[in-house]
Write a structure and sequence with these properties.
Two copies of one chain form a homodimer. By secondary structure, chain A is mainly α. Chain A folds into two domains: 12-71, Homeodomain-like (Arc Repressor Mutant, subunit A); 77-194, Tetracycline Repressor, domain 2, CATH 1.10.357. The first copy, chain A, has helices at residues 12-32, 39-46, 50-57, 60-73, 84-100, 102-114, 119-145, 155-173, 179-194. In chain A, α4 (60-73) packs parallel to α7 (119-145), α7 crosses α8 (155-173) and α8 (155-173) packs antiparallel against α9. The first copy, chain A, is elongated and about 60 Å long. Chains A and B meet through α6, α7, α8 and α9 of A and α6, α7, α8 and α9 of B. Chain A binds a DNA duplex (30 and 30 nucleotides) through residues 5-6, 8-14, 17, 38-40, 43, 48-52, 54-56, 58-59. Chains A, B: It holds the Pfam family TetR_N. Chains A, B: This is TetR/AcrR family transcriptional regulator. Chains A, B: Residues 15-75 form the HTH tetR-type domain.
Chain lengths: 207, 207
Amino acid sequence: MSARPGTVRPGGRTARVRTAVLRAAGDILAEHGFAHLDLADVARRAGVGKTTVYRRWGSVTGLVTDLLAELAHDAAPHRETGSLPGDLRAYALLVQREAADARQGALLRAVVAAAPCDGRTAAALRRFFEVRVEEWVPCVEQGVARGELPAGTDAAAVVRAVSAPLHQELLTTGVAPAPHAAECAARAAYAAAVAGAYAGAAPVTGR
Amino acid sequence: MSARPGTVRPGGRTARVRTAVLRAAGDILAEHGFAHLDLADVARRAGVGKTTVYRRWGSVTGLVTDLLAELAHDAAPHRETGSLPGDLRAYALLVQREAADARQGALLRAVVAAAPCDGRTAAALRRFFEVRVEEWVPCVEQGVARGELPAGTDAAAVVRAVSAPLHQELLTTGVAPAPHAAECAARAAYAAAVAGAYAGAAPVTGR
DNA sequence: AGCGTAACGAAACTGCAGAACCGTTTACCC
DNA sequence: GGGTAAACGGTTCTGCAGTTTCGTTACGCT
């Protein structure tokens, strides 16, 4: 009835269609970029009817949004290295690898491009980063507990500071940052946090 | 001839048309965002023929690109405050104000969105940031000369580190960062630079 | 001032993304 | 294993972004 297609009978063919379409969309995104992402192409490559793609995803932004949700779902498990510099370095390299990966990097650029055009996409993007940050915040908080960082440090700000320069480079130059840049970003965030740059006035952001 | 329209007779009406179109495009961008930027709307609001807009700018991305070039052209003059923390703070607040401004913020988001779809736009975006960075690099270099920062500091990296978290916030949340965030970014970049995070690849161990 | 043509503008045209229709397949429940 | 309707898919249609055409305006040069 009013339930969206794909939610009442999610098994069997429906699931196969979803997998094939997302896979094809990812391929096209990695090969030709966001600009030439045509739903008819996706349908053809996925071996699926054009109608189906339009019915279930509606538009390019919808498809990209679903793709992002899928990416966020199988998040890479991260192991703590024991020291905060090591953890931040691991996070920076994760972001760097992600940006350098053809599929994930292209997807990231596509999502950022589509976000201003579509509310759902914007929400998905926000959620994606929130989850990311929340995942790595504990590392920073442990650093505070261990006395590596001053009390009152805004852990989320530290995590965001690691990824920010890497994402900026990807988005502005169109080229993925080098591993060296990732290590530099991690070092910088750590040094700034140690110096208390994120422990100043209480942030109003969040809650 | 093969010269593009608007280049042979740039005066009088041609200039008026250009001004009106860019103004209208900026208005629509600020009001309705990048998604609903229709060239026919722009033409109507500018009191100009639809044909003219298509002939001179060709597409939405072309128009956005020209708009960006215009913005980069009248760059805000920056005065040096005498101290590096002060300069970085001034730069951070400039970026923050820009992001918070309805027209400029919307334009920035639109350009980033359009960049993956169009080579010229991507180049314009890259150029825009390059100019920005070059403008503020001297402040950092003076800081190095004064001995505030370690020798071998990558001045451009420091400048980029200031703007990165602010732009990331604008692009991922869709909301412009607060002035507080700008000051935090400036503090962090300064602290990291002082600690030598942007100087060479070797980790900071006194030495 | 007069001329050549660059640039503009209104209207008619075209191509294609996306929607509608409807018959076919198949997942889920008993 | 049989019934029901959810979901698929081929075809056709439509709305509109973008193009073409051609007549009009006015910039810049002498």
